[in-house]
Amino acid sequence: MSQFSHLELQPADEFNDLRIKLANDSDPNKIDVSIGVYRGEDGNSFTLPVVRRAKALYHEENYGHDYTFCLGLPDFVQNAAKVIIGETLVSKKLVASCQTIGGTGACHLGALFLSQSSGYKNFYLGVPAWPNYLPLIKQAGGTVTTYSYYDTEKKQVDFNAMLRSLNAAPAKSVFILQLCCHNPTAADLTIEQWSQVAEIMKKRDLIPFIDAAYQGFATGSMETDGLPIQKFIEVGCEVVVCQSFSKNLGLYGERLGCLHVVVNDVAHTPLVLDQLRYMYRAECSSSPAYGARLMALITKNDELLTQWKKDLQDMSSRLRTTRATVYELLTEKYKTPGTWEHVKTQRGLFWYSGLTEQQSKKLLDEHHVFLPKSGRVNVAGLSDRNVDSFCAAFDAVVRS
Q1: Collapsed DSSP state (helix, strand, coil) of residue 97
Q2: Is 361 a catalytic residue?
């Protein structure tokens, strides 16, 4: 009898299973629009030009392989905060930051900080949402109340449902909000709606917990995509921000993230930092250095910073162009039944297509198009070489 015979199997990970199926599929024309990774025109993982340049500079130095500090590489942490929060609050020491293991690590540490250190255990989540939020919050000791985020008929944010939840939630409740390029729906709040949400949260003493996984992908501008955070700061909210560089630097495997807590009183910054240090020491001790050093090189060099901004503009522009192509093919070439405006109005990597679970399965089983059962399509997985084939398969499934 094993000491572990009482253990039970946990729910399968859909995306892990899809990756295994993809690797084992020998069809030369298979199309991968599943996992949220920006891919180049050739369908392979894309290295940003600015990252290639930063790597060349990196190898000119002898950084060695020593540990970083518990709160992270200082140059990275400070510049990461400036990218997402802005230089003013960072210079005033109103931001407590800690390097994390990717955006997931930032969300996990942020949830731990709120639930265990601060005692704020009630989390609110609009659904559909990134599936990892629920187990992540549960593991941190929090409870989750869900509300409708997406109006499937209008194919946009269900803002009235969000307002009802904001106005009904008890004080000190935490609302998990995605900054932009919402995963999986690709439907974002307008800046006017963000202002309204910020005012309600300040008035009702609620805590914004902002997941920033795609900054720069919505509009091509990190500054513009980051404006919702400024709306909370303007009304005096203290904000928890979970930042990832997996997408906007393409450093997926380097697991580069950062947690930021914006406070209203500089006297409280050291207290928050100490809590983050204490929790992170128990979990990871220190974070990986390579990706952090690359990002620090980029943000300290004006020429590289300009290149990074151009790379994001190019990537965002390509996504919009691909969306327009899909729309044109579905509406003009294939005349696919239905309304497809949302392929153009949604933003970022994803298109929340509206396919049913059965249709998504048929697309996979019969056409070798790999996507999750939600019907979410990674637009970056499409290019000139496969977009027509994708739309033909999509049309066939819709008509079946």
Answers
A1: strand
A2: no
| Whether residue 300 lies in the annotated active site | no
Within this chain, do residues 230 and 167 fall inside the same structural domain, yes or no? Answer: yes
Query: Do 295 and 316 reside in the same domain of the chain?
Result: no
Q: Find the CATH number of the domain harbouring 394.
A: 3.90.1150.10
* β-strand pairing of 95-101 with 122-127: unpaired
In terms of pTM, does the model score above 0.90?
yes
pLDDT at 358: 96
Q: Which of 32, 130, 155, 225 is catalytic?
A: 130
Residue (of 244, 242, 226) closest to 234 by Cα position: 226
* Catalytically annotated residue among 121, 155, 231, 247: 247
Instruction: State the burial class of residue 149 (Cβ atoms within 10 Å of its Cβ: 0-12, 13-18, 19+).
Output: buried
Question: Does 66 participate in catalysis according to the annotation?
Answer: no
Structural domain including 162 reads 67-300
Distance CA 345, CA 231 (A): 23
Asked whether residue 55 is assigned to any structural domain, the reply reads: no
Helix, strand and coil content of the chain, in percent to the nearest 5, comes to: 50, 15, 40
pLDDT at 13 over 90: no
| Set 188, 211, 225, 311: catalytic member | 211
Tell me the mean pLDDT in the region 10-31. Answer: 88
The reported pLDDT for the residue numbered 331 is: 97
Burial annotation 359-395 (CB, 10 A radius, 16+ → b, else e): bbebbbeebbbbbbebbbbbbbbbbeebbeebbbbbb
In the three-class reduction of DSSP (H, G, I as helix; E, B as strand; rest coil), residue 383 is classed as: coil
Say if residues 217 and 248 touch (Cβ distance below 8 Å): yes
The per-residue pLDDT for range 85-109, each reduced to its tens digit, is 999 999 999 999 999 999 999 999 9
Task: Compute the distance between CA of residue 314 and CA of residue 161 in angstroms, rounded to an integer.
Answer: 35
Q: Judge if 294 and 336 occupy the same domain.
A: no
C-alpha to C-alpha distances, 40 to 178, 258, 329, 394, nearest whole angstrom: 25, 26, 21, 22
> Would 120 be classed as within a structural domain?
yes
Strands 122-127 and 174-178: parallel
DSSP label at residue 334: S
